[in-house]
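User: Predict the full complex structure for these chains.
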Amino acid sequence: MTPASTAAVDLVNIWKRFPGVIANAGASLQIKTGSIHAVLGENGAGKSTLMNVLSGVYRPDEGQVLIDGEAHQFRSPSDALNAGIGMVHQEFRLVPSFTVAENVVLGASDRLVRRTAVEKEVGELAERFGLATDPSRPIWQLSMGERQRVEILKALWRNARILILDEPTAVLTPSEADELGRVLRTMADDGRSIIFISHKLHEVTGFCDEATVLRGGKTVAASLQVADTNAHELAGLMVGSSPIISERPPARQAGEILLEIKNLEAQSDRSLPVLHGLSLQVRSGEIVGIAGVSGNGQREMAQVVAGLRPATAGSVSIAGQEVTATPPAARFKAGLGYVPEDRLGVGLAPRLTVTENAILRNYRSLRKGPFLDSDQADEHCQDLVERFGVKTGPMHEPIAGLSGGNLQRLLVGRELSGGPKVLVAAQPTRGLDVKGVKAIQDLLIAERDAGVAVLLVSEDLDELFTLSDRLLVIHDGQIVGEFNPETAQRHQVGAAMAGEVVTQ
Amino acid sequence: MIGLLSATVSFGALLYLAALGELITEKSGILNLGVEGMMAIGAVTGFMVALETNNPWIAFLAAIVATAVFALLHGLFTVVLGAEQVVSGLSLTILGVGLAAFLGKGAVGRPPGAVLAPVDWGPLSDIPWVGTIFFSQSPVVYFAVLAGIAVSLLLTHTSVGLALRGAGESASTVDAAGYSVTAIRLAAVAFGGAMAGASGAYLTLSLTPQWAEGLTAGRGWIAVALVIFGAWRPGRAAVGAILFGGLLALKTRLQTFGVDLSPILLSMLPYLLTIAVLIVISIRARNRPSAAPAALGQAYRREER
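Assistant: Here is the predicted structure of the two-chain assembly.
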């Protein structure tokens, strides 16, 4: 064991209790200076609580926080920041209308702000760590990957020597994630210590030095050398039983065409053409996966199919019925289920109750005269909760209190309860823990086996390879390749995603 | 004609002062529709204190302080307690106008205790036209110009301005950056009150040195419209202030020119122009964040997600 004095961070026997829950039950974590350290665990394992303790959001009930061997008691995030701890949250804390430079210096600049000087300084800092950004551009114009770089820049600007990244790759494309890995390595070589929280095991094994696994609020494996372990072992430690590996379900005979998209064209949020004559078909009983680097039109395609974005040309048919110009409700009637990328916001209304969210699709049929029939609504909600294994508090509480996995179960359940013929699922497992991913994937497969045509948009290539019966690659608003996931190679799909013409 | 142009500058300054305050308030994320009421409080305070002290400067300062405190009522409800901002702002207008009428009962018809004398710029004031229009105005007019420049610099070139704008765009970000959103917004609301108070006092200490119920005559509302017309920018708001000020000046002089146009039509113009600007803004900004602060009108509570 390395002596505590050389560790950048040493969390010793941390306890944190909340009403009814013990979030940390003697968790420990030791980070070597200049290393990239993965913290693994399922949702609810106590990772976030532990990180909140380290970053000064929570005060631990028991235990010690040592930074460079020195004991600290943080009262607020700014205390932690002063001790050199920077946190990059999953939801970015950026002002969309501000420029990159303005966001970076917000709260950490002299009284007077000279725009050009600040932009130059921020640009230099960005360059030093390979975080390519234009300091004068407003945030709203940037991709998720670029926004994350700004968040990292903010921490660096404040001279953070210890950086906590909370599921940093959840919003990134595979190539952006690789890029992030290189940036983190540059920072580690600079003597900074990185704490990397993730669910994606191949990233942990890809660019972390050590890993600590939490389960049930306790540390079950401390500072494993990543070189000496593998994804299977880590997955096993996380779930506490044999690792969950999604087996490829046997393919089934595909039936009639239920979703047909012909020569679809549409515009992006910035009124630029983003779909350029996209065509595809999904048959009954098959899962068609859409792979692509984010920003190539997959998001917009799903929205056009759902009726949330107008098509400028082309057509969309659901079960033989043309729906191109119809509103979302008509598509729901025609047999469409839609799991949007943005589950809290587009899919579910955060401040409405669990019950209200559960009946958003079919409240018209839950009526007693002109009024809602609340008994029927409760019944419907209860039914969804039971059938889809949603863990929820009181049904009449706002839904925002549910965890990501449970939100998604309820959302998918609601979309499936109407008995859809076509299911469009955009990033349905993003940000979920291992069990949540498995549950959602099983649901998709079950629907397929029941004859539903499933269109799956995902940034997780492993998931696409596991679930898809056919794998389509989208690039620049067009389908540029079709692969058989059983025989295709990852690099072939990757090349197609990058826009190279490949023949299989 | 000279009179008309000179009055344009005076009325423009009147509107600009109140609009600058409202602009800062809105930039911090708080909508205060109480400008009309705050102006009334400033107007009556200025006039009453001048009656007592016969010192226009003490009266002017008293109006500023009193109205800032009055505005903090809105701050208490919306910033601290998270109440609905539109409701609270409208209440402030009704309360302010009523309170001013009540307090000023004994002052109706009385001659002013003191007035803010026009600044004498020496030879500059003697220049024909220009001298009369720009260099023989009340000191408050020059105060408005300086305030406009100061606000403009504050917003773009200081870290306080950055935090203020941030509070109106994304309060949680500013909170995470270590600022107190509550303190920023309360300060902005108080500043909005102070400026509305200055505007009101300008009315009773120099523009129309007398007190009567309903003296503010909807000018507070024009100031609110002016903020939107100026797309939340101090510079553009100044242009709008001159334009709307011109309309106000024209309204009072229409009869003297013998033009047969209903002054009511002229009173409508500022609002029609504001609506036109809103339409232009929304057409131009369809694919970008609008000019309005993104969090305008939203209470901030830390624990909400």
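Chain B has a mean pLDDT of 90.
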